[in-house]
Amino acid sequence: MQRTKHTAEFKTEAVKQVIDKGHAVVDVAARLGLSEGLLYTWVRKSKAADGTTMGDMRAMQAELVKLKAELRRTTEERDILKKAAAYFAKQSG
What we know:
The protein has helices at 8-19, 25-32, 36-92.
């Protein structure tokens, strides 16, 4: 049997048919002329790669929450300082 090199786009589209569109691996493999085992491998690798992406997303979301809290605190401090500056300007003027 001859070994075939598939492009990244071909692999991505095949995996999308299984994961996103919900088609059976058996059906997609038959339509595309692939072995079921090969397509299962691509799907498993894709899900594993998405798992690391989800970890990165969680870290980014946690950082976003932290930064929003810091921005809220800093904005409140600025507003307090503005009011204090206006108060002391009236007192001296």
